[in-house]
Amino acid sequence: MPFPKVTVVGAGQVGATAAQLLALHNVADVVMIDVAEGMPQGKALDLMHLRSVERFDVSVSGTNDYADTAGSDVVVITAGLPRKPGMTRDDLLAANSAIMRSVIAAAVDASPDAVFVCVTNPLDIMTYLAFKESGLPHQRVLGMGGVLDSARFAFAVAEKTGAPIHEIDALAIGAHGDAMVPMPRFTTVNGVPITELLPAADVAALVERTTFGGAEVVALLKTGSAFYAPAASIVAMVRAILGDTGEVLPSCVYLTGEYGIDDVYLSVPARLGREGVLGVVELPLDDQELDALQGSAATVAESVDSLGLRG
User: Kindly report the CA angle at 128 between 100 and 211, in degrees rounded to 5?
Assistant: First the structure.
């Protein structure tokens, strides 16, 4: 039985690392596409040289032609300009909008039945743009944000408490950026919420570190931004989609009234499967949590409106 096919648009650090992890886990045959001639081909060849060492069965190829991506089951879009020190995700809006419009048109033409996973920042706005430009059902266009933000929250909790990472379940929802909403009441160590384990000041500090986790990486690297954890977050989503698992993962999805939010892409817990988003899970939020989530949605809506995409 042939493997599924995943296209990764953008063969930079995030895209190439995602391709590596997809191969190592034998998830799918991978096609990396990039505008840079030779780069996706060279990285794909390097990964195929790795195959005999790691003994994976899938193939990895590189191309500059969308014809080679035809018939993909999942298309992951990482193409775009990365953040630099001092740059917010919103600073990327104009340049990456143009890139997204070009990519989504070519990718949908080649793979009209695929599920599209957007990674390009600013994530929530770019995912909405991809949805509008693609003409696809919103269930087949989603973004990677909440998985990564939740992973950063889990790390911060583990470092603070000393608990093994496998004992920690963390959740961050909302916009992927400064307006994200880490959820301490739904973040647990061995099933106990951190709000019951830690003083309020410590919880607040963990929330702040999570919110600016990406910026912390950018500041340390000085050039470029995070790619290992983003790539792993992509692969978690792709595995749930291709495996049709129905796994609940915090994902950037289109909301149609859930949490009192409409016509906005935002990270919330969602069940993922072969058709993309199978359903949104509505958590029993208290008034403060719901206000924070709706406030986060408002910041995304404002940026989307600046592109003239809604209405």
Answer: 95
Tokens of 57: 């069965």
* 97-to-54, 118, 128, 151, 286 alpha-carbon distances in Å: 38, 12, 11, 27, 35
Which H or E run includes 152?
A: helix 146-161
pLDDT at 39: 98
- pLDDT < 50: residue spans in the chain: none
Q: Domain boundaries in the chain?
A: 5-143, 146-306
Q: Which residues pair with 75 in a beta bridge?
A: 7, 116
Domain 5-143 is classified in which CATH homologous superfamily? Answer: NAD(P)-binding Rossmann-like Domain (3.40.50.720)
- Tell me what pLDDT residue 85 has: 65
d(CA 196, CA 40): 48
Predicted pLDDT of residue 248: 98
What was the pLDDT predicted at 7? Answer: 98
**What is the maximum alpha-carbon separation in the chain?**
56
Look up residue 263 and give its two tokens.
Answer: 């016509």
Task: Out of 2.40.50.90, 1.20.1250.20, 3.90.110.10, 3.30.1490.20, select the CATH number for domain 146-306.
Answer: 3.90.110.10
176 given a catalytic annotation: yes
DSSP characters over 226-266: --HHHHHHHHHHHHHHHTT--EEEEEEEEEESGGG-EEEEE
CA triple 129-135-141, angle to 5 deg: 60
pLDDT in tens, 252-291: 999 999 999 999 999 999 999 999 999 999 999 999 999 9
Annotated catalytic residue, options 25, 49, 138, 176: 176
Q: At 181, is the secondary structure helix, strand, or coil?
A: strand
What is the tens place of the pLDDT at every residue in 192-230?
Answer: 999 999 999 999 999 999 999 999 999 999 888 899 999
